[in-house]
Every structure is written in structure tokens, then in C-alpha cells.
Design brief:
14 helices, globular, 10-stranded mixed beta sheet, alpha/beta, 474 residues
Length: 474
Amino acid sequence: MTGLMTTLTVITLVLAVYYLVYHLGTIWIVMIAAREIGRETRWPHKFEEIETFSNPLAPTVSVIVPAHNEEMGILAAVDSLRHLRYPALEILVIDDGSTDRTLDVLMNRYELRQRRPSHPDDRVLQLGETLSEFETPDGVLRVVQKRSMGRRADAVNAGLRVARGELVCMIDADSMLAPDSLLRLVVPFMDDPSIVASGGTVLPENGISFRGGNPTKTRLPKKWIERFQVVEYLRAFILGRSGWARRNGLTIISGAFGLCRREAVLRIGGLEGESLAEDADLLLGVHADHVERAVPYRVVFDARALCWTEAPAELSQLRSQRIRWAHGLDEILSKYRRMLFNPKYRVLGMFAMPWLLAYEYAAPFLAIFGFAISVLGVATGWVALDAVLLLGITGIGLATIVGIFAITVQVMWLRLYVSLGQVLLLFLTSLIEPLVYRPLTFIWQIRGIWRGRRGIESQWGVMQRKGALEADGD
């Protein structure tokens, strides 16, 4: 056997083991997620939610909504929050230097009046100066107007400094929460004081019409680029995060919808202003703080707590988003590298963080490398074309099966896209996604990681909102 053939054989074996571990790990996560979701949907949980809703001692939740030029959708987002089934709620909209009519539309709709400045908690740093504060006559809605520093984290930190709730919920200004979503996330906090954070399912709102936080028409979006994201989100949230949460191994709770104990967030100084992965950075910081202090804690996830957010509908916007996400992934893996293979962090350190490194960070590089090796193997006659095609079909088939499983779970338990036409179209999308969509995301991931490795300054970019949601009374 020549040196080239030996090298190709070794590389092929390494890649085979890599993908074998990936598929076995994915099956393990899916099985845990299925059991967890099945447990969550049993009838006793409904009584827990009813008891929480009627409990006068339910903890106050401060919902922090950073908003920069969100006049098209801010009323719909706030209306959905005002329809939440929760007895002790504070809504904090942070107008982060908007140059459009974001503040004006809020003033006109909710009869806001100026109030005295709040006393901030100085454990959290705020860079952009607070200019003024407003509130509704009932005090449920407060609007904090501040100078923008071009960072979402600074706006969230401004809310954390003045929030009054024991729990804080951070959502995006284009997000819509189902009326019972917050209630579902709060229940575990009341049952278990060791819980420090909880997350819910985030799905694209593209194609869906809302009123008062409730979908009035659930349609799949028309563009394939949006449909691919629907399947991607279903797979990531319903299966991935449900599975890891069961073992206290969640590495991220989405910045679009997450609930934390305010004290746990204040202890680590709030959000990292320069991070492009601020949501993962926040959760990993909370993990690290509790582990280093040897304080028992849990991070949980409820797939039934639904949040809808506007997903990019244009290729250029999606590309910018995924490059930013990959750049952020490079940042957090570098910042929290001490967790990798660290038994002190248990499942998080020994499995979740290595999985993030191997199958999120390294995956695009190995996919392209594996493709190149396959082409070289066929060209040199070392491997038969039929074998390469069989391996490729097997990989695509397994990826499709996981997507189909996620789609089936949402039909059975979440009841979102349930018509035969919608389900079949989602199945078709799941089949096409590994061939068309995933290679694109791999290329964008490599660009983002390369930016991180070169130390290029973090960039957020701007996403144009369509403002397709309906506010009450519109």
C-alpha cells in the first residue's frame, strides 16, 4: 500500500468514527428529548400551571424588551406580553436610541407618562446613558429611553439595572409569546429553588398571523429559505435543547426567549457587551459561577413554552446572521475553554461543551475536508464511487430522519403545522435541507470562525423587519 493510500485509509477511519459518534450521540439526545417532552405533556402539569396563575405569591417577572427602530412591530410584541397569563408581570421596553417612531407609537398607544428615574443596581455596567423613563398609569409597562451603543447587550443591561422582578425574561422586540409561555417557564422555579434559568422553544413567525399572542393562521412561509429555518428550529429546540436540558447540559438559552433568576444574572455582571453570542455567554457564565462556588443548580427547558420570532427572509440577511453566530461561537469556546473535558462541570464539561466543539465548531471544516477526501479517493481509484454515494445517502438519510422526527413531535404535542399538506411539505424540506441549505450554512460558519480566529472586531449588522404582525385593535 502506497503512502497516499495509507494516509487516505487513516483519514477515512477517523472521519468514520467521527460521524459514527455524531449519529449515536444524536440518537441518544433524541431519545432523551422524546421522553422529556412526553413527561411534560402529562396532565398533572396543567394543574401546576393553574395553581401558579392563581397564586398570590407567584414571583414577579420583569420582561426586558430591547428595541432599536422597531416601530413596525413593537405594538404587536407589547400587546402579546400584556395578554400573558401571569399574575405578577413587569414589562420593560428599552428604547435603545431609536431614530424612528418606536417611542412615539408606544406613547400614543399606552398613554405613557414620564416618571422619576429608577435607582439602578450598579453591579451591572451600562454604557449608554439613560435619558428618560416613562410608564403606563397602572405601572405594568415601563419604557426606558437611552443612548445607543450599537449593542443589544447594553440595552438588556439597562433593563437589568432597574428591573424589580425576582425573575427576568429577555426577549427580542420582534418576538411573540404564546399566552401561557411565561407561565410554563415559571412553574419549575416555584417547585425547585435550585433552578437558575429556563428556556422555551423559539420558532420562525414567518407566514403566521397573530392577535394577542395567539396564532390566527398557521401557514408555512412561501420561501424555501424560510422553510429550511422552520425545520432547523424545530430540530434544534424540540430535540436538541430538550435532550441536553434533561442532563443539565444546556450551553445556551436563546436570547429571543429565556428566563433567569435576576440575582444569578447580577452576580456575573449582566450581559457581556462585546460578545456576539451574548445568550450563550450569559448562560455559561451562570454555569461557571455556580460550579466555582460549589452551589447546586439546574438549568431547565420546556418545549411547550412557545415564542415566535422573525427569521431572515433574504439570503444576505441570513448570511450575516450565521457569520455572526459562528463568530460568537468562536468567542465563547475560547472564553470558556476551561470547561472542556473538565469533570468539575460534569455533563456540561465532559459532553456538552466537547459536542459543541466537535459537532458545531469543527463540523463545517470536516464536512468540506471529507468531501475533498472522497473526491480524491474516487479519482485515485482507492474507493469505489458506489461506496461514496452510499455513505453520502446514509448521512443525508439520518439527518432527514432526525428532521422528520422533530416534525412528528410538533404534530403530536405542539400542534403547530398539522394539515397533511403542511406536514408533507415539511418532510420534503427536511429531505432537501442537507443538500442545499446546510452546505451554505457551513460556508458561512467557516467565514465567521475565520473572523474570530483573525481577531476581527465583532459586528452585529442590521436586519430589516417586515412588521407583518398585527397589534390589537389594528
